[in-house]
Amino acid sequence: MRSIRWKKKYQTGTPEVVAQKRSLMNSLNEIAMTSSKVEHCQDLTDSYYRFVGMLETMLSQAKSSIDQYEGEIRQFINNEFPLAALNGSACHDCGMCDYFEKQVRTWEQNH
Predict the structure, then answer these.
(1) Do 97 and 83 meet the contact criterion of CB atoms below 8 Å apart?
(2) Strands annotated E in 1-111
(3) In which region does residue 71 sit, left (phi positive, over 0), alpha (psi from -120 to 50) or beta (all else)?
(4) pTM score, two decimals?
(5) Dist. CA 67–CA 61, nearest whole Å
(6) What is the rounded distance in angstroms from the CA atom of residue 44 to the CA atom of residue 66?
(7) What are the Cα distances from residue 1, in Å, to 17, 33, 42?
(8) Which letter does DSSP use for residue 64 in this model?
(9) Strand, helix or coil at 93?
(10) What's the angle, vertex CA 72, arms to CA 96 and CA 16, rounded to 5?
């Protein structure tokens, strides 16, 4: 999985909003970095890229608190987790599904 690079177009809103955006981006980059160390299922990669796509739209549009997207983030979590591959034949038992969900939920709870 690739890390997300900070783009100038994300630099919108107050310093607090920019800090929220960077925090979420850092959480996702931690997932990408950690996943590169273990073999994981395709479902995890697909889910990550769906979330990144959603995030990139949010980062470009959010001028006020990124909390305005809390409902979309919560819906994503509820729809995606647990991943379909978890404990199935495609599962690599790598722990990344739990790690991904934990990272996103922790970010959500802190903002």
Answers:
(1) yes
(2) none
(3) alpha
(4) 0.79
(5) 12
(6) 24
(7) 26, 8, 10
(8) S
(9) coil
(10) 90
